[in-house]
Design brief:
- It is built from four helices and seven strands.
- It is of the alpha+beta class.
- It has a four-stranded antiparallel β-sheet. Strands 6-5-7 form a three-stranded antiparallel β-sheet.
- The longest helix is centred in the middle third of the chain and has 45 residues.
- The two termini are 60 Å apart.
Length: 171
């Protein structure tokens, strides 16, 4: 981008510039004439600010032929703030949905990792989780006691498979 002329335009707070020059996008079309408007807001309370750039390019001959039209368009157009805000809100909502999905996926992975770790810990410590089939209550006990309870009351106690471990109860 080769800026050959700048013109500061009045604006309430912030800065407003018109830039004139040439830009080559290296797309095989060669250098194009460019007109751009840069609007910068005044710094906000937390130090943030916004810069908006409106730019268009055209072959130099077209830009010369349409110079009068261009000089009428730039000072008179206005931004549809309602539309801009709606687009920004949609992008924010999409970002939030993606973040929620990511957090959910990570939570599922962590839960499965915690479940597998607990299963390995139970195996190494010689423990079993059994379930009271009447109440659904889960109890972790030694393998020997779990086996004895299941043998004595096969309709009342059963071993809980690792896939049925309850988060917050068994792991």
């Amino acid at each position: 981008m080769d800026v050959t002329k700048t013109h500061q335009m009045p604006i309430q707070g912030g800065k407003n510039y018109l830039l004139f020059g040439d830009v080559d996008r290296h797309d095989g079309k060669g250098s194009q004439s460019m007109v751009a408007q840069i609007i910068m807001t005044a710094p906000q309370a937390m130090g943030g600010w916004q810069m908006t750039i409106f730019q268009f390019t055209a072959p130099p001959q077209v830009m010369q032929e349409e110079a009068a039209t261009v000089s009428e368009i730039f000072p008179n157009y206005s931004r549809n703030t309602r539309y801009v805000n709606a687009v920004a809100m949609q992008q924010i909502q999409e970002g939030l949905a993606q973040t929620r999905q990511f957090v959910s996926t990570v939570g599922q992975y962590m839960s499965e990792s915690d479940r597998m770790t607990q299963g390995m810990s139970d195996m190494l410590r010689g423990q079993t989780v059994i379930r009271d089939t009447n109440t659904g209550v889960h109890i972790r006990t030694s393998d020997d006691l779990a086996g004895a309870l299941e043998d004595a009351n096969p309709n009342l106690f059963e071993t809980v498979p690792l896939g049925d471990y309850r988060q917050g109860v068994d792991f």
